Amino acid sequence: MESNIPTAAPEDGFSRKDFLRMTGKGLAAGAVASLVTGQSSAQTSRAAGERVPARPDEPIVLEKWKSGVDQQSGPTPTPLAPDQRVGYAVVGLGHLTLENILPAITACKRSKLVALVSGDPVKMKKVANQYSVKPENCYSYQTFDQLKNNKEVEIIYIVLPNGLHKEFVIRGAKAGKHILCEKPMANSAAECREMIAACSQAGVKLMVAYRIQYQPHNRKLRELVQQKAFGEAKLIEASNAQSSANPEHWRHKKALAGGGALPDIGLYCLNTIRFVLNQEPEEVFAYQYSTPGNPLFTEVEELVSWQMKFPNGLVANCTTDYNVHESRHYRVLCEKGWYQMDKAFAYKGQKLQTAKAEGKMELQQEIGLAETDQFGVEMDYFSDCVIRNIKPFTPGEEGLQDHLLMEAIYQSAKAGRPVRISGLLPAGYRGPEPDLQ
Ligand code: NAD
């Protein structure tokens, strides 16, 4: 139960503009806040009326001075005051947290860091000092469940090895907090189902951190494909590969990683193609390999190459590898041209190019878009979902779809034959298209 106010959608379904239209801009702040937040069991920290409306309804408009010939800036940011931002507890202080998530959250507009969870008290103390997290807001994996009593925390962000996601998502849901879970969502589709059920039962939101679905260049490419400016898409080539070196790392242990290159990085090809096409594959055919004797690949695979066939005949060829120099790109080949993304799945530096025939020429273009901090955008988006009671665009079900497909890919590689896909959820499980301003 996400809202007890019958006039608002129970969860999702209306955009910011729709919402403003529904409520009118003249409603008293308290009335708006109670309509937006409702009073769910998950939101013990924000009783109705406690928080002023989520953000100003329009960005501040500054005096125009640039001509239309140049790329335009803006809109101006619309940050919440720090005391109104949504409080995060970040769980796991490894590479992603220290190098990307914590630096990003300090620059967020709607999110703030209020708590940490780690198994290493010395490291946590240092990080807490760096980011001004109060000592009483620092938890161990054993005291994690006490987050339930911390009203400052509204969202728990799980940034642990994949094999631990299920346990901490379920414990976080039982603590009554909304959950942002890193990808891959879990080790198996069965685990995903348990996590979705636990969050649903607790009345909390669950979002999988598929940052590419909130990244401007990838969103633009999807828009172009959907508009069919170059006709129908027919073929996709996608690759996400990198090199790893430490056989003792959890990424090389089956119980903690779930698999090798496929769930860690190949997943980006799979998830981004599904996102760009807005379709699900109906059949997969895969090949898997690990160099014999290489200690990195005694438990998890080195390489997976797979094809996905879609209902309209489109075929996607995907490759992922843990033992080559890094490369992250995809290309969508259409009847009259192609779209290509270099550094497609990287944290920054996306390069979106298009090509089409024009008479005797091939016209190639690069579409320049302002870069955003992918982790900051993602956290602020989820905070907005919590504030406005909107179902996330990448909910737990999105993770489940990927796990069902990865299981079919492994099954195909093992059997050496194509596997028909069954059991996927029908379209409609996502929240509305995100409003990312
Ligand atoms: P990492 O190894 O750098 O950090 C993992 C953290 O978990 C460490 O602090 C470690 O101490 C802790 N931990 C707790 N219990 C552990 C155990 N039993 N074994 C090993 N470590 C344990 O990993 P990372 O690169 O930060 O990845 C964390 C999660 O984030 C993974 O799910 C990964 O797939 C995901 N990730 C996502 C992105 C992205 O772009 N969205 C990028 C990198 C990683």
Please write the CATH class name of the largest domain.
Alpha Beta
CATH fold type of the largest domain = Dihydrodipicolinate Reductase, domain 2
- The Rg value, from CA coordinates, equals 22 Å
User: Averaging pLDDT over every residue, what do you get?
Assistant: 89
Number of strands: 15
Structural class: alpha/beta
**Spatial order of strands in the largest sheet:** 14-13-12-11-7-10-9-8-15
CATH architecture of the largest domain: 2-Layer Sandwich
Helices, by number, come to: 11
Relative strand content: 15-25%
Shape: globular
* Poorly predicted segments: 1-10, 12-45, 47-54
Hetero ligands: nicotinamide-adenine-dinucleotide
- Domain count: 2
Q: Helix and strand succession?
A: HHEHEHEEHEHEHEHHEEEEEEEHHE
Percent helix among the residues? 25-40%
- Biggest pleated sheet: 9 strands, mixed
Distance between the termini: 27 Å
| CATH homologous superfamily designation of the largest domain | Dihydrodipicolinate Reductase, domain 2
Written account of the structure:
With 437 residues, the protein is an alpha/beta fold. It folds into 2 domains: 1-20 and 83-210 and 374-394, Rossmann fold, CATH 3.40.50.720; 216-371 and 396-420, Dihydrodipicolinate Reductase, domain 2 (2-Layer Sandwich), CATH 3.30.360. It has 11 helices and 15 strands. It has helices spanning 16-23, 29-37, 95-105, 121-130, 165-174, 189-202, 216-227, 254-257, 261-277, 374-388, 396-415; strands at 86-91, 111-117, 138-139, 155-158, 178-181, 206-208, 233-243, 283-289, 303-309, 315-321, 323-334, 337-342, 351-358, 361-367, 419-420. The strands form 2 sheets. It has a 9-stranded mixed β-sheet. Strands 3-2-1-4-5-6 form a 6-stranded parallel β-sheet, with helices on both faces. The longest helix has 20 residues, at 396-415. The radius of gyration is 22 Å and the shape is globular. Nicotinamide-adenine-dinucleotide is lined by residues 92-97, 119, 159-162, 164, 182-183, 209, 211, 250, 256, 264.
